[in-house]
Amino acid sequence: MNMFTPLISRKKRAFTLVEMLIVIGIIAFLAAITTKIADSITKSQARAKALADMSAISVALEQFKGMYNDYPRLNFHSDKLRAPRDFYSCLAGKTSMKVQNNQIVFVDVDRAKDDKPLVDITSIALGELTTDGVNIPEKVKYDNENLCFIDPWENPYMYYYNPSLTVGSFGSWESSTYILMSNGADGKGANVRSMFTNGIMPSDEDYRNSADNRDNIVYGFDN
Question: pLDDT tens-digit profile of 174-223?
């Protein structure tokens, strides 16, 4: 009598279609979560970079005021093409302010080679502002008159200050300081007229009512 029982071969069971669909669904779900987390981190990093840039710019603005007794008299709302260039020129140490015939004027500065700009222009991204938008040059020439500071979404940082150039006059500008901001990832911002005409920031609730302003960053309010 044979004492050994022969082994019964078993076929390997293949995945069913339902099981494969479940696995694919799980993988897609995990990929979606990972993408969402990565996107959130990227947005947070960009926002942090914008705040760091604006912090450096604000320090430079205080230095500018210490040298010339006032902040640069520029308003991006009135001249969206020239003002960003002039703003860079002021903080890069290429332009100063002086009084002539009771008027505040901007004048070019002949800087010595060992002088440094008021802001570290190597830490803030620069773009070449054109009528068609902003170009990011491969090699930045710091003497390019069309350069401007750009946020992580490649739009110019916006700066607003009393545009009156008459000494001692503030016109309708009621704020004692400037407004510095970025329109955020969507590059959009609703026209809040009081900000640009008299320097008054609306309440945060009123400002965020517009969908275009919800991702905006206003230095001093969002940090």
Answer: 888 999 999 999 999 998 888 888 899 898 889 999 999 999 999 987 76
Alpha-helix residue ranges (DSSP H) falling in 69-161: 82-91
The tally of domains found in the chain comes to 1
pLDDT digits (tens, 9 = 90+) for 21-49: 888 888 887 777 777 665 655 788 999 99
Cβ atoms of 80 and 172 closer than 8 Å:
no
Inter-residue contact 219 to 199 (CB < 8 Å): no
Let me know if residue 138 belongs to a domain. yes
Residue type present at position 219: Y
CA distance readout (Å), 218 to 30, 128, 152, 181, 182: 35, 23, 15, 4, 7
Contact 66, 58 (CB under 8 A): no
User: Is 13 part of any domain?
Assistant: no
Sheet strands side by side (includes 133-135)? 133-135, 126-130, 147-149
1 domain-assigned: no
Domain assignment of residue 149, yes or no:
yes
138, 164, 160, 137: which is closest to 148 by C-alpha? 137
* pTM (predicted TM-score): 0.79
Q: Hey, which residues does 134 pair with through a beta bridge? A: 129
> Which secondary-structure segment (H or E) carries 68?
helix 17-68
